[in-house]
Task: structure prediction
Amino acid sequence: MNNKKKGLAFSLLTMMLVATACGGNNNGNAGASASSSASASPSASASASDAGASSPAASTEAPKITMTIQYPKPDNTEAIALEDSRIKRFEEKYPNVTIKKNDWQYAPSEIGIKMAAHQAQAAFNTFATEGKTLSEHQWAADLTTLMAGYEHKNDFNEKLLGPMTIGGKLYALPYDGYIMNVMINKKLFQDKNIPLPTADWTWDDFYNAAKATADPGKGIAGFAIMAKGNEGGWNWTNFLYQAGGKAENVADGKVTSAFNSDAGVKAMEFLKKLRWEANALPQNWALNYNETYNLFKQGRAAMVIGQKIEDSVNQAGMKKEDLMVLPMPSMEKGGDHVGVMGGNYRVINPQEPPEVQQAAFNYLTLDYFNQSGLDELKRILDERKTNNQVYFWDPTSVYYNIDSDYGNQMKDILAQYPDTVFTVDDQAVSMMKGEPEATYNAQDYYGVITTAMQAILSDKNADPKAELDKAAKKFDTEVLSKIKVE
Result:
């Protein structure tokens, strides 16, 4: 989703929560933010075909190139420091390339205007939901040729490549990924002598924890769900998946809504119980992405979907030992702990000439699978250690195979900073199961779901089935009926 969770700045070394649900025409990744991450920013060594560009002689003879890249917003100081470091290293290696900075962040409602005006950066970030939109409108370069000469083309995390592989062609490089989880303020549990939930928890356990930790008189919610913008539908979809449902059906060349199923009704009824029976949600429940996490950082929500560990500790001053990340609950004991799976991706602008596209590819892959990526991780960890800050690492979402030689080198470095690195418990990681977001028009889907959620949250007599049917009719009529599947 766009904000965005993801919102969130996660490194390609971590998995983010990002952010708000992304959207657009097709392919879904709504939760992650397309803004620059505050975590380590992986990139890769130059392709074999341009290996000579790093030598002084080759660089001197290379044509002068000016390239605009996406730069973090002014208030994202950690991400700015990381990007500045990367720019410096890139320009040292490729002195013929001049980097220009532009802090425009991808938005589904703006990308068409930017491309029509030729104002999009040579390299910019997007969400996993945008794969088909970008490819069908030719707003993302086909990376087939660029990848062909890249020595690590076969070393990426295949799961993360999937959302941006359309018709056998790759249209973006993975930046970070995520499987939605739950972030918990352990202190709010301990203050009321409530046992902490465990990784194998169920909807009943989640409900009881939310109800027990809620303290409406003090303005404390047991659970804060996003319910203001499209990110509301992004949050709710986790429960839809846990109930065994899906967002859409594809059959006979047509796409239709599937969320108004028995599973969808169960998921919406669960939300209704949290609101009206448990009184576990914030009194002002209409929160967007940032507002939800701000409530958590203020100690006014015991649980939220997604994680902002670094932001909570490094920016808000929460204590590392007071935080915990668990997989999403299963609907029933022994069921799957399913969370929405998405990620942030890096696009190369197809409007740029070939030499700029190559430079953009070199920039985006500067540290991937490279010693500089290891060095950058160590530099960040040293800096975080000096500043008494944490670094979040989620092994489920990195761009590389964690069991590869490069992955093992990364894990060896992380192990040297036990007091700085925050990792998800191994048992929790083993239980996390990701389910991709809606394939078609994910943003529109999230929007109609948010409307249904708001009806349920504002009226205790609202009927979950009726609201979902209304949402499905609107989505089918106004959006999905216009899609033809080849």
Q: What stands out?
A: The chain has two domains: 29-178+343-427, 181-340+432-482. The first strand starts at residue 26 and ends at 28. DSSP finds 18 helices and 16 strands in the chain. Confidence is low (pLDDT under 50) at residues 2-59.
